[in-house]
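Q: Got a minute? One more chain.
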Amino acid sequence: MGAINQYIDLFDANLDALNAGSAGALNAMRAAARQAVEGRQLPDRNTEGYEKTSIEDMYSPDFGVNVGRMRIPVDVAASFRCDIPNVSTLLAVVVNDSFHPAASLLKNLPSGVEVMSLAKAAKERPEIVDKYYGRLASLDDTAVALNTMLVQDGVFIHLNRGVKLARPLQVVNIFSSPSPLLAPRRVLLIADEDSEVELLLCDHTQDSERHYLSSQVIEVFAGRDSSVGIYDIEESSPLTSRDSHLYARQDKGSKLTVNGSTLMGGTTRNSYDIYLEGSGAETRLSGMAIGTGKMHTDNSSSVIHGAERCHSDQLFKYVLDDDATGAFEGSITVTPQGRFTEAYQSNRNILASTRARMHTKPQLLIYNDDVKCSHGATTGQLDQNALFYMRTRGIPLAEARTMLMQAFMVDVIDTVKLEGLRDRLRHLVEKRFIGERTLCSDCKTNHSPRCLTDE
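A: Always. Here it is, folded:
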């Protein structure tokens, strides 16, 4: 039955070790997940919605899984730091799939906010984890079921009612292993009524010569009148693959902002499933991808309006060069209960070489007449008239191309609420377009130890 068999065999041979490395709800759902994957295959290019991205191929290599919770030789005492000028963050690190809080996080976390290892939370806060873990991430998705079967740790974030976190949380996911590795990760974020939180996720690969696969599942519960922002930046390596699933449920009056940026990687599939359950909820979902070499980036979205007077905006942009490929399949569904919905979706793409390829499929499913909805997609090349005009003004061709591509990404970057992060993203995008490969900390080398400090 393909790639999934090797993980079933691993699970069956190491169930005791998997349970010993975790606790509570994470262990309790393994049996159901194991049953869910039995006899099934991971999606491939013959599966609807995956025509351009084979999840089967992503999981096929002989990846190891850190079942025994071996400590990887990484200097987590100093921790990793992705500097964001003018933004003071509360920092944690996930090394492969193990959570490590920075000293500053433990020291400065305010009352009413819990940020800890998900495995630890399953032991110490079972009344919360049992209530929310796995409630949005459906085992009908084979890749999600596989993650649920193997996961041992992740990040737990809980904000009490009325708590407004002044400083953003920052979680840096680091791949570091002497051999090829699959890291199953989870993020469980619960924002109670009238709370506010901003979460920055950064993906990096410490050893660019190794093959890695990130299996990530994020579950977000946005309570009534809460505000949640999630900003996800991938800067890994061409040998790193990523299969990420974000599920969110929004209560009445809640506001959710999700921004995903793929700046460097190998094969990436990001899936977003957002359900606006309460009236007056608002969603802003955006993403950008800069593809070079043989990078492949796939974003898939499903936004469901299940209540009246909700609003959603989707904006995804790609710039693809060399032999890079991209895919976007997005849908808006308005249920019969979704009266007075406003929902918009746009996908715009630039192919900067004749070999780059883009697949796009925007969709609307509307079961109510009292709505304002639109969707659209465009794919083209850089404006030759604009290039000609800039060259007549003495701007070299390479610089003119970079300026146009930067300008193309501005409105995606502007969806980021944090001013310092917006500035940093502009800087990273500029460097990416001129061919420099740097981490968020702007190291002089790709993975300089200078990054690994928490001041």
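A: The chain has one domain: 4-451.
Q: Perfect, thanks.
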